[in-house]
Amino acid sequence: MKLFLCRFDLKVWTKNWLVRSRDNSVKEMYDSPLLWMTFGLTIIGFVMVTSASMPIGQRLANDPFIFAKHDALYILLSLFLSIVILRIPMLFWQRYSSVMLLISIVMLLMVLIVGPSIKGASRWLELGPLRIQPAELSKLSLFCYLASYLVRKVEEVRSNFWGFCKPMGIMVILSILLLAQPDLGTVVVLFITTLSMLFLAGAKIWQFLTIIGYGVSAVILLITTEPYRMRRVTSFWNPWADQFGSGYQLTQSLMAFGRGKLCGQGLGNSVQKLEYLPEAHTDFIFSILGEELGYIGVVLTLLMVFSIIFRVMSIGYRALMIDQQFSGFLACSIGIWFSLQVLVNIGAASGLLPTKGLTLPLISYGGSSLLIMSTSIVLLLRIDYETRLAKAQAFMKR
């Protein structure tokens, strides 16, 4: 028996060596640049969270490193979770995507019933020392379900308006639960990403125009019916008109970018983080990064972000090309989600967009965001691994 196993292992190793030596495109069975750039952004995020959160940590807990400790804990949890998830085949996620979506809906309902209210919003569930934000899980759950739905019903989406409306209906249910928290930023991400995926699946243009019309009307209605949302929208047009009122946060953010200049004030030397800029370690951490690391730091960080987005979309494209539809659709949805969240966060910090309260992926402080985004990156690595493995097996059969 042992001799048989040894021969089998030797045979497998020999085939793998032959594939790697004869085809240079299959040297590695995973996307190493994506992995290392993810590690790089995570390290940048940890350093910036540590720097930006020291003043508020000292005031709230008499410990300047309290947020850094929490961030380090979530990074370790993300690492252990990633090791487990990396071993799970994509077929599992496709098979249980509906269960994931149902769990997300139940958790969003629990938030409204038993979730603590913080700054007028109920967005978290407390599980012992951990605080979980179900809205983050709802993003990944919806995109897994959407990818599974497109695999099963792609022809119906292309030819039938009802097939187009079904996933939009699921998105509307999640949006209602999210708006009850309230969390308009996540709703915008879900809406645009869902529409983008249906467009990639081949839905008709007139269906998009109809849904976009209803969506824009709904967003305008939601903004005009809530005074705080209306203030957010109007303040970014001219924040200096009310720099100590509705435009306070944005003006402080712009001053942080202005102080950064070319090379920055130096790591740890930010003035705006001394509680002049609210949410400096979460929603506006990019402003502190600009102030301390300057234009050079901003450009290098953005290059890493854009490189990740490019590699994510490339992984999705390669999966679709070999007919791994679920993996391809899921990878594309993660890429759109990642890029959209980056756009909204940096746009809000620089005054190009209204403030939406979305974290900067892998950089901002936020345990739930870090756990879900790292899970998404690991899913992409698994997709890339299965894509390369399928190509290697096809090469071996020739």
Radius of gyration, taken over Cα atoms and rounded to an integer in Å:
23 Å
Question: Which regions have little confidence, pLDDT < 50, spanning 5+ residues?
Answer: 1-26
Integer count of domains: 1
Topology as H/E string?
Answer: HHHHHEEHHHHHHHHH
User: What does the overall shape look like?
Assistant: globular
Alpha plus pi helix count: 14
Major beta sheet summary: 2 strands, antiparallel
Strand order of the largest sheet: 1-2
**How would you classify the helix and strand content by structural class?**
mainly alpha
Would you kindly provide a written description of the structure presented here, covering whatever features stand out?
There is one protein chain. The relative contact order is 0.15. This protein is mainly α. The chain has one domain. Helix content is 74%, strand content 2%. The N terminus is likely disordered. Helix 6 runs parallel beside helix 8.
Question: Could you give the topology of this structure?
Answer:
Layout: H1 2-22, H2 32-61, H3 66-85, H4 90-95, H5 97-114, E1 125-127, E2 130-132, H6 134-159, H7 161-179, H8 184-201, H9 205-225, H10 227-235, H11 248-260, H12 285-321, H13 325-350, H14 367-397
Antiparallel strand pairs: 1-2
Helix pairs in contact: 2-3, 2-12, 3-14, 5-6, 5-7, 6-7, 6-8, 6-13, 6-14, 7-8, 8-13, 9-10, 11-12, 12-13, 12-14, 13-14
